[in-house]
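Q: What would this chain look like folded?
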Amino acid sequence: AMAAAAAGKEEEELTSAPWGPVGRSFVLGATALVAQVYLDVFNTTKVHNVKKLYEHLYTRPKGEGLLTVSNHISTVDDPSLFCAFLPLSFFFTEHEHERTRWTMCAKEFCFKNAVLSAYFQNGKVLPIERGLGLGQPTVSALTHKLSQGDWVHIFPEGKISRTQKLGPMKWGTAKILCEGEVDKADPIVLPFYHKGLDKVLPIGSKVPRVGQKNTVVVGEPVEFGDLLQRCKKNHQKRKESKGGEDSRLEQREKQYYREIMDKIGKSLLGLEKECESLHK
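A: My prediction, written as C-alpha cells:
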C-alpha cells in the first residue's frame, strides 16, 4: 500500500501542471498556434482520414483510452502533427476538457533546464531517461493515464528514423498496453504515418524550412482480438506470482509483447506504403 501511495504521489508530480490548468491551456494553445502557422502557412500539410481521429477522440466511451502510434522522423513530430489535425480552440480549452494527449520526451532534450521542464510539463510531456529501461515512473504514469481513459501518444520506434523508413518496433508500447488494469476496457490503438517533417526541420538544423509538403495518413484501429486481455492477465499473474512460476510467465509476456508490436508494426508498414503514394 505504501509503495502504491508513493507511486501515486510520483505520478501526480510528473503530470501536474506547474502553471495551473489555465497555464497548461495557454502553453498548449500558444504552441499549437506556432505549429499551425508553420505547417499550414509556410508549408502545406494534408491529412487523410482525419475523421477517424476525431471519431475516437471525441466520441469514445468514458474510461476507454486512446493510444495513437506513429513513425518518428523529426524532433517536432509531436506536438506539431496534432496541431495540424485539431482546431486551435481544442488546445486553448484544455482546462475545460483535459483531452489533449500525454506523451514522453528524452530528459536530456526536453528537460535540460527549469524553464524547458516547466514548458514541457505544462504541455503534458513526461521525461524519460534513455538507457534506463522500461521501469521508469513515466512509463507507469502513461500506463495509468491510458487505463483511466486518457489519450496517450507513443512513437513505437523509440527514436527518430534516419532513413525515413519505419525502423524496428521497441517493446515500450506493448508494456504500456499490457500493464493496464485488467478490468478496464482495452484502449483503442490508432496508427498514423507521416512524411515531410524531416524536410521542414532537418535533423541537426535549428531553423525550420518553408515551402515543404507534409502528408499524414490516419489508419484504422489495430485489431488485437483478445491479445491485450491475455497479456494483461498474464502481467497480473506475474505481479502475484512467487518465484518459481515467474520465468514461464515472463517468457509468455515477451511472446505477447512480440505479437502486439508485430501487429502495430504491420499496421504502420501498410500506412507507410499508402502515405508514400499520396505524398508524391
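The chain has a mean pLDDT of 92.
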